[in-house]
Each structure stands twice: as structure tokens, then as C-alpha cells.
Amino acid sequence: MTGMAASAEPLKIVGFGDSLMAGYQLGPTDSFAAKLEAALKAKGLDVTVANAGVSGDTTAAGLSRIDWSVPEGTQLVVLELGANDMLRGLPPEQTRKNLDTMLKRLTDRGIAVVLAGMMAAPNLGPAYGNSYNSIFPDLAKKYNVPLVPFFLDGVVGVSGLQIDDGIHPNPKGVDVMVERSLPVIERAVRALSSS
What domain range includes position 78? Predict the structure, then answer.
């Protein structure tokens, strides 16, 4: 049995997102995608995690490239977009619509998805916050996909975990993001591996 598992193809994962996925100003081995791959392998899972993060991407930009950025043969996508929409104050309805369309396209292709959630900055006000913050749990429920409730959980506002801009995670911050999201992503990978 072990011989069979070893000769099987690794499970192909794509980390699809913005600078938080891409690893803004970090070395290639310090990106979320790279550290996630290492963490899953440390759990004994045979995976590859391709980094399809593009710094500055909004959900609209992600939607325009999702079909060709997620190649055939991909089995799982970690979908992480929406932070730049929020930082630019774009209407939450538009963010919701774009993410909904991406989820539909991926599930139509038979690709499993883990949705990485984001939270609105408090300075945008409660109305914007409520409208924006509900997007991710609502869509995870609609498509029955696992949700990482807040991708930057444990990193936002914690000193020593960001690069100089005070927004993007440094390598230690990425470690926290991987650690917090790993249980959800690992469950999804194991479910795919056993099916």
C-alpha cells in the first residue's frame, strides 16, 4: 500500500490570491504558498502548492485571470482575495459577486476550494464592515466549502509580525497564518486524498 501511495502523483494545490498569498517583499520560500506546502508535507501529505498570488489584485482582477491561472489537473484552490477591494473601499456587493463567480467556475470544473476570509478595517464604519464581513461565511455556506474565517488572524495589530508597511506579514507573520489556517486546509487535503 505504501509503495502505491509513494508512486501516486502529488495532490496539486493552487494558492490563488493577492499579495498576502504572493508573499509581498518576501523571499520565494517565505510566501504563504511555500510555507503551506512545507507544513502539509511535514504532516505526511504529498502535495505541491503553486503560488498564483499577484500583489495588488482585486477580486475583479482575480476573476479576469482565474481560468488560466488555475491549470487543468488542479485538485484544490485556496482562494484568497478581497483585501484590496476593502482597502480601496469598493462596494462589498461587487466583491461578493466576483468571489461568487470564481467559486462557481472552480466548482463547475470539479476543483475543491478552501475560502480564505477577510475582515473589513474598523475605520470603514459598521455598515461597510457588516456588509463586507458577511461575504465569506455566506459564500462558504452557499458552495459548501471550508472557510478560514480570517486569513490574517493573529497577525493584524501584532507587533513583530509585519514588514515595515505595518500591513503585510513578514516571514514570522506568514508562519502564524499557516499555523492558523492549516487545520482547515489539512482536512480538505485529507478528504481529497481519501476520495
Answer: 11-194
